[in-house]
Design brief:
- The protein contains 5 helices and 8 strands.
- The strands form 2 sheets. Strands 3-5-4-6-7-8 form a 6-stranded mixed sheet, covered by helices on one side. A two-stranded antiparallel ribbon has the order 1-2.
- β4 and β5 form a beta hairpin.
- It is globular.
- The two termini are 47 Å apart.
Length: 176
């Protein structure tokens, strides 16, 4: 450990809790940069909070879900408008899997059901030929890549992709 920090007298404030108390606290005003509550989230749009506490999606996530109303719905959005954590939140809200494919500055989002997203290996090969990468997908239960996940990944020119769960946890899996 090192020497205790030095405090410049101009930065210190002594707090006296009155004659009945013998407590005296020395506070360096520069050590408290943010209020305790600042930086915390209320859980809106957070996969873990949706799963554990029934929090809602944030407005951006809800707008995306509104464009994906049923199984095999597809929508293309700007790359900056959606993340894998957003898809984890959608999965937490709906109990459905979602997949994301990226081509340049655009992302294709596909809604699945509780156990799969409707992307076949032959469709994946076509998407790969068009320049798409498989950014990742979500699972309702567990973070283990299925044989189907690996079969689809083999059709892309990449060796890895990710799986997110309803808590926002993720793993990287490969095609082997």
């Amino acid at each position: 450990m090192g020497a205790p920090p030095r405090y410049a007298p101009a930065r210190q404030k002594n707090l006296d809790f009155g004659a009945e108390s013998s407590i005296l606290i020395n506070v360096d005003r520069n050590t408290i940069s943010l209020p305790i509550e600042q930086g915390r989230t209320d859980g809106v749009g957070e996969p873990w909070a949706i799963t554990r506490h029934g929090k809602p999606l944030n407005d951006r996530q809800q707008a995306l879900l509104d464009r994906l109303p049923e199984y095999d719905s597809r929508v293309t959005v700007d790359k900056d408008d959606v993340s894998m954590m957003d898809l984890a939140a959608l999965t937490a809200q709906t109990g459905n899997e979602f997949a994301m494919f990226t081509q340049g500055s655009r992302r294709l989002i596909v809604r699945g059901n509780a156990g799969q997203v409707n992307i076949t290996p032959s469709e994946a090969a076509e998407m790969s030929a068009q320049g798409y990468k498989w950014s990742g997908h979500t699972h309702v239960d567990g973070l283990i890549a299925s044989k189907g996940d690996k079969a689809v990944l083999k059709m892309f020119s990449q060796s890895e992709s990710v799986i997110y769960d309803v808590m926002g946890k993720h793993i990287t899996f490969n095609k082997f």
